[in-house]
Batch of 3 targets.
Target 1
Amino acid sequence: MSSRRSRSSQSGVPRITDDQITDLVSKLQQLIPELRRRRSDKVSASKALQEICNYIRSLHREVDDLSDRLSQLLASTDTDSDQAAIIRSLLM
């Protein structure tokens, strides 16, 4: 047992078991399209977590890009129009 795990259980924080970690990683794998496609292949928890982090980063980039595009569209639209109101509601 690692010293970090033994310290956390002594501090009153419930210890997460290896089975719980495996279950959580499995649930995360089901949410990631790239890992879902490779379901038949066994992927290590480390590799799965790397893929999950990469996927989350790509989602952040996509959200940022869409937000920038909506902001540009709003800047080029009459601010009193119905279209501008819809765009503003999407940005909030």
Note: DSSP finds five helices and no strands in the chain.
Target 2
Amino acid sequence: MASSAPQNLHSVFVYGSLLADEVVAALLNRVPQSSAAVLHNFHRFNIKGRVYPAILPVENKKVTGRVLLGVTDPELNILDTFEDVEYERRTVEVSLVDSLEKLEAEAYVWGNSNDTDLYGDWNFEQWKAAHMKDFVKMTMGFMEELELPESKPRVATYENFFHRSDDPTRS
């Protein structure tokens, strides 16, 4: 009987494309249990030229999202790779909506706090209607690419996929 080392389980606050179960399932091959949550003193921005959002600390603002529960170390590594160099994983305190309980969770915070490409308020429902289908396809392509010896970073996969999709001369 093979024994496996105990795994750490993580809570991860998601607020953008990972709110869509289809994107999470494409990355993790499952959808972990989750709870609605709020991250206080942060704001969710649009990013010029991108369909996904960024969060940064902003006093008296809040970001609604959900906490993925029971994320394993290998799954957290996949999320780290997916979020790429644009984001920094930080431990934050979120409030669960149902119980108002406070919980420490990992969150992917935009790395450049002075980024002039950040603006406005990102909206999940608008993203879902306009971009989710293509984003899920891009995510599936990212996971296939991840299996290859010379896999591209997610930003390169994203840019290649969405620029190709926007070019009517390419099929």
Note: Confidence is low (pLDDT under 50) at residues 164-171.
Target 3
Amino acid sequence: MARRRDARVAPSQYRRTERVENPTQELKVDDSGFDRKLISIFVFLFVIIPSVSVLVYKISTAPPTNRSELLVPRRGLIKTDVNYQEILTENSKLTENASHRHYSYPVLAYITPWNSRGYEMAKRFTAKFTHLSPVWYDLKSQGSSLLLEGRHNADKQWLSEIKMNGDALVLPRVVLEASPMELLRKKKQRDKAIELIVTECKEMQYDGIVLESWSRWAAYGILNDPDKRNLALNFVKQLGHALHSVKSTRNGEQKLQLVYVIGPPHSERLQQHDFGPEDLQSLDDAVDGFSLMTYDFSNPHNPGPNAPMQWIRFTLQSLLGPPGKTAQSLALKIFLGINFYGNDFTLSGGSGGGPIIGRDYISLLEKHKPALQWEKNSGEHFFLYSDDNHINHAVFYPTSMSIYLRLDEARSWGTGISIWEIGQGLDYFFDLL
């Protein structure tokens, strides 16, 4: 029986994953200096002359140019000058049939066991997704052996309903927490890890897995050594080939799939621990897709947008290189990350703030009735407010406009998308998918 899912979420669990930080290197996505100077601008607005905020951040009312034709109904919300009342009125409404897809490339949706709403959204909009990844498993060291932990999270009734609702593949996420050096150096350990994963897929009738290991390997320094890096890449290849040797129980013509989680660069030059274009090409034959985490660009220490558009483009260019047949074929395997959560940053005093999800955002709109502002360089809306303790905040949370821009960018490259995570968004986001 699956463990009972708590509808509430601890703040530390909102975020996608822990990333490798390099405090001495910062990625500048635009010469305007917006990205990492945002905190000083906000303090300036609040402390010195808050009345001029509307002059510092000009709201553009014209739609972006050179966009492809809108593929969703014109509800009046895909615009830069949206106001809080429109969001409060429209966020729970859907104008489209839930089974109709607007985004033609693959869509991977993450679901977390600590947020039960994600399970409901997956059932409600199954037809809009090609891949569903419930965050269920961890592969851990247990003395000299290995343990695949997480089956208690698996909800067999939910799995059955998903399969009845459509053709979306179910690939649970597996985080590799086992001791990296023991796992990668010892053939017996590697073979055991792969056996545990493949056996679980067979017994639970999964369509494959989403594997997350790169950030942990980076934290242990594995990726800085060429020999150890090759061991790591070879393990992923070995796992991919093992999964590909097994036929899906749902469709005998289809093999089990491997999607691999990769992080974006956080500096202008790729660091040794970054996943680069050579790694992408090395794993191409063994991996069916790459879940690219293009979010969490900012944090409480450096408040700002969740995923600036220039950074997204830079990341794709770094991985795929110049346009051509090679870039086009590799792009088809990329799931460009889109966040359905946001951040409420404190700008003066307080603890720095942190992630928020849909219900938190709606509560803030209802309480503060803020003026949403559009930051054109990042392609995101935000608003400013002062709480009951007179602490100043900046809130970044997705809107129809910001999501549409990212879908259009992904479409222009020919990539799929991955969403972290669908229980954290607002209902009307799904009209765009």
Note: The two ends are 32 Å apart (CA to CA).
